[in-house]
Amino acid sequence: FVSPAGGWFAGMEPAPLRFSLSVIVSMLVGGIVGIVTAAGEEIGWRGYMLTRLVQAGVPAPLVVSGIIWGLWHVPAIMTGQYGAGPYPFLSAALFLMFAVGMSAFWGTLRLRTGSVWSAVFGHAAWNAVIEGPFTGYTAGAGSALWVGESGVLVVIVVCALGFVAWKRASSMTGDHSL
To answer: What is the C-alpha to C-alpha distance for residues 141 and 125, in angstroms, rounded to an integer?
Structure first.
C-alpha cells in the first residue's frame, strides 16, 4: 500500500495526496505491526539504558544514548544489511547523527511522560514510514544519500527536531544536563 506505482492508492491524483495517504496508512497499519520490533529496541534503549544513564549522572545522557544506539547499528550498515546507501561509511556516520537526534526526541518524550510507550509508538511509526512510502516514493539513483533513513536531509530534520525537543524540555524543567 506504499508503492507509488501500485497498492491501495495507485492512480490517485494528485501525487502529493497519494503520498500523504500512503504516509498516514503506513503510520497506522505499519506502526501497529512494527510495535513488536520497536518495543524490543525501545525497552532496552530508552526504557532501561537512558534511565540508567540519567540516574548515574552521565553528562548529556540523551546524546550518549544516541551514540550507543547508533553504534549498535553500524556493523549492520557497514555490511549492507541495514540502511546502507551507496557509501557505507557515510551512511554509518549519518546514521550516528540521526540516532543522536532521534534519541534526543524519543528520549525527551520518554523522560517527560515517564513511559517508554511514547518512544515505542514513535519508533514503530517512524520505521513504517521511512521504510515504506519514503523508500517507495524516493527510489532512484543517489536518493538514499539524501532521503533515506541515514540521508542528509532526513538527518538534518531529525537533529533539528531532537534539539527543539531537548531545548523545550530542558527549559521547562530547568534541567540542562540532559
So the answer is: 26
Residue-wise pLDDT for 130-171, tens only, equals 877 666 666 665 676 787 777 888 899 999 999 998 888 777
User: Could you tell me which of 26, 7, 4 has the C-alpha nearest to residue 124?
Assistant: 26
Global pTM value? 0.81
The candidate with the shortest Cα–Cα distance to 65, out of 108, 17, 99, is 99
CA dist., res. 127 & res. 40, Å (int)? 13
Grid cell in block for residue 177: 544536563
**Under 8 Å CB-to-CB from 70, ≥6 apart: which residues?**
95, 96, 97, 98, 99, 100
- Measured CA to CA, the distance from residue 169 to residue 165 in angstroms comes to 6
Query: Residues near 119 by Cβ (< 8 Å), separated by ≥ 6?
Result: 42, 45, 46, 47, 106, 107, 109, 110
CA distance 136 to 127: 13
Number of other CB atoms surrounding residue 115 within 10 Å: 14
